[in-house]
Write the structure tokens for this entry.
Amino acid sequence: MSGNGSDQMSDISFRMMNTLFNLLDFVHPYIDQRMCSFGIREGITLVDYGCGPGRYTLRFSKLVGPSGKVFAVDIHPLAIEMVKAKIQKYRMGNVVPILADGYNSGLPNQIADVVCAIDMFFGVKEPVLFLGELKRITKSDGLLILDDGHQSRRVTKEKLQTSGYWSIIEETPDHLKCKPQ
């Protein structure tokens, strides 16, 4: 897939999603609690794949600290614009925004200790290509944190198994923790 192609939502849908997330986070602030089980520690390199408007990016930045790095990757130009604004507003010097070209993040091989793909996997039209890219950028001893989003756990697991790239090492009601095969 080249370009920012068919997985990209429209600008209006993206803006509506951002508004909904802001409202949800105001009414039910659960993200910090959710992230406690991700195993993110200071000094690591983390990829926030499908970062959207940066809902998790700021928190990831704080968790990895000044000695760590967060790559905020998305296929939507508005996502990258919003993340850049947050970088400036919150002085997140350890965050690098990246506009992906389809399933090509442009990141070097095996750069990530942890890749988080939160609330976006259900929208990936070619999961084998996507999961292959995630494996390529993840260190051999790295982790993938993946949630189901708006699809069943059964479907998420089938996509992972079909790809042949990942083994599930931990399953919670909230997410799967996977290691590269």
Q: What stands out?
A: The CA atoms of residues 128 and 163 lie 5 Å apart. Residues 1-5 have pLDDT under 50 and may be disordered. The first helix runs from residue 11 to 27.
